[in-house]
């Protein structure tokens, strides 16, 4: 059996008195595509923000490629991870956010080059070559010198994907990447993600409300409800054959 590349072990997360995650156990295999669905407030985004070290678990462990993400060993004991440890373990993880998070004062080529050059200390020539390659992959090879303000929302989101891909992640996280887009731009972004998924090299965790997209792309769908995994399995099983009432109620709003 292949060792999971990500393991959540009894992960809890509270914001003050509000319990967002209540004991999540989840394994993700290398190159597996996992879609996370569920109602608003169920903890979907929190799950991937913790993997990106943007939120810290209240309790439990997250293991990435065999290493504990939020804890490290010191003097034979597990202690809270320092920034260096967090940076090293999350180095194999890329994330695409809802709102692009591009640098407005940089061209899209510069946006893609900045992390490999400044974080991975890569030389500018190879970073530029790979950035151009990734921008071409997402269909923006003709926009290298454009600034984010000159692009549509869908194009900005594709730049954000290229920027994440340039870092050669083993795990790619997508957080509701179409929710901030006009409806007519959603298709172009989903198509790029489909193409990336088909290459099959990376594990992908996709928080999404696009059910048909989840069915097409995912190997497994995880339904989060009230901070716990209420259902998971192959897409057809979860979306068509589940007897879970909460899931049925959730899916009903997507059916016409």
TrEMBL record:
<dbReference type="InterPro" id="IPR014343">
    <property type="entry name" value="Ectoine_EhuA"/>
</dbReference>
<feature type="domain" description="ABC transporter">
    <location>
        <begin position="6"/>
        <end position="251"/>
    </location>
</feature>
<protein>
    <submittedName>
        <fullName>Ectoine/hydroxyectoine ABC transporter ATP-binding protein EhuA</fullName>
    </submittedName>
</protein>
<keyword id="KW-0029">Amino-acid transport</keyword>
<dbReference type="InterPro" id="IPR050086">
    <property type="entry name" value="MetN_ABC_transporter-like"/>
</dbReference>
<dbReference type="GO" id="GO:0005886">
    <property type="term" value="C:plasma membrane"/>
</dbReference>
<comment type="similarity">
    <text>Belongs to the ABC transporter superfamily.</text>
</comment>
<dbReference type="GO" id="GO:0005524">
    <property type="term" value="F:ATP binding"/>
</dbReference>
<dbReference type="InterPro" id="IPR003593">
    <property type="entry name" value="AAA+_ATPase"/>
</dbReference>
<dbReference type="InterPro" id="IPR027417">
    <property type="entry name" value="P-loop_NTPase"/>
</dbReference>
<dbReference type="InterPro" id="IPR003439">
    <property type="entry name" value="ABC_transporter-like_ATP-bd"/>
</dbReference>
<keyword id="KW-0067">ATP-binding</keyword>
<keyword id="KW-0547">Nucleotide-binding</keyword>
<dbReference type="GO" id="GO:0015424">
    <property type="term" value="F:ABC-type amino acid transporter activity"/>
</dbReference>
<keyword id="KW-0813">Transport</keyword>
<keyword id="KW-0472">Membrane</keyword>
<dbReference type="InterPro" id="IPR017871">
    <property type="entry name" value="ABC_transporter-like_CS"/>
</dbReference>
<dbReference type="Pfam" id="PF00005">
    <property type="entry name" value="ABC_tran"/>
</dbReference>
<dbReference type="InterPro" id="IPR030679">
    <property type="entry name" value="ABC_ATPase_HisP-typ"/>
</dbReference>
<keyword id="KW-1003">Cell membrane</keyword>
<dbReference type="GO" id="GO:0016887">
    <property type="term" value="F:ATP hydrolysis activity"/>
</dbReference>
């Amino acid at each position: 059996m292949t060792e999971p590349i990500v393991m959540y072990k009894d992960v809890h997360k509270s914001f003050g008195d509000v319990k967002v995650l209540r004991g999540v156990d989840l394994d993700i295999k290398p190159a597996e595509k996992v879609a996370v669905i569920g109602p608003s407030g169920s903890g979907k985004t929190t799950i991937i923000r913790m993997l990106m070290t943007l939120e810290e678990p209240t309790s439990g462990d997250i293991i990435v490629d065999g290493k504990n993400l939020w804890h490290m060993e010191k003097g034979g004991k597990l202690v809270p991870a320092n920034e260096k440890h967090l940076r090293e373990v999350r180095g194999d993880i890329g994330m695409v956010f809802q709102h692009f998070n591009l640098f407005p004062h940089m061209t899209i080529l510069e946006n893609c080059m900045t992390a490999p050059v400044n974080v991975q200390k890569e030389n500018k020539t190879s970073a530029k070559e790979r950035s151009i390659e990734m921008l071409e992959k997402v269909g923006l090879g003709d926009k290298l010198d454009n600034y984010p303000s000159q692009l549509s929302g869908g194009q900005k989101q594709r730049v954000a994907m290229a920027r994440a891909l340039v870092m050669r992640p083993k795990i790619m996280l997508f957080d509701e990447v179409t929710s901030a887009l006009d409806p007519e731009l959603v298709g172009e972004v989903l198509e790029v993600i489909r193409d990336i998924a088909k290459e099959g090299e990376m594990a992908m965790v996709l928080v999404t409300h696009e059910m048909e997209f989840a069915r097409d792309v995912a190997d497994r769908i995880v339904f989060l409800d009230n901070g716990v995994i209420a259902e998971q399995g192959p897409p057809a099983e979860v979306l068509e054959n589940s007897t879970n009432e909460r899931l049925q109620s959730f899916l009903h709003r997507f059916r016409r």
